[in-house]
Backbone:
């Protein structure tokens, strides 16, 4: 089954079905992914992308900040996840994270009003998620 790919409208920043269905998306705008849903492999809603973090030295997205849990803006946790942990499902225009809800419930996160010092937290976040900087291992971090 062929998956849809998306082409980006540079004026609106929105994704549109591209004319070449076998060509993967090469560029995404930040506004086209902020607000996208994050699901696990079982299709459970894990959160929503709230922000991205760019490594200024190399000019690439290093982390994606997702919001998990809570109700009506109360009790949610934020996570800075290494970007390669997320896989884009172009058919449904959602991101897939190979982790369970239980793992996120137990994982250290931060409050949207109290972002941690970036460099220290990202080091801790990367260490927590298994030093993840490449292919997803699917392993549960400890």
Residues:
């Amino acid at each position: 089954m062929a998956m849809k790919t998306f082409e980006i409208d540079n004026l609106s920043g929105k994704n549109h079905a591209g004319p070449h269905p076998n060509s993967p998306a090469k560029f995404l705008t930040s506004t086209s992914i902020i607000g996208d849903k994050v699901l696990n492999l079982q299709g459970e809603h894990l959160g929503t992308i709230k922000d991205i973090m760019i490594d200024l030295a190399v000019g690439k997205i290093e982390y994606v900040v997702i919001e998990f849990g809570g109700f009506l803006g109360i009790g949610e946790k934020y996570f800075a996840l290494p970007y390669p942990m997320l896989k884009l499902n172009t058919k449904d225009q959602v991101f897939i994270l190979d982790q369970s809800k239980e793992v996120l419930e137990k994982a250290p996160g931060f409050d949207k009003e109290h972002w941690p010092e970036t460099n220290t937290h990202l080091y801790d976040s990367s260490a927590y998620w298994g030093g993840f900087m490449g292919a997803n291992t699917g392993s549960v971090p400890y």
In short: The chain has two domains: 1-33, 39-128. Confidence is low (pLDDT under 50) at residues 1-13, 16-23, 133-142.
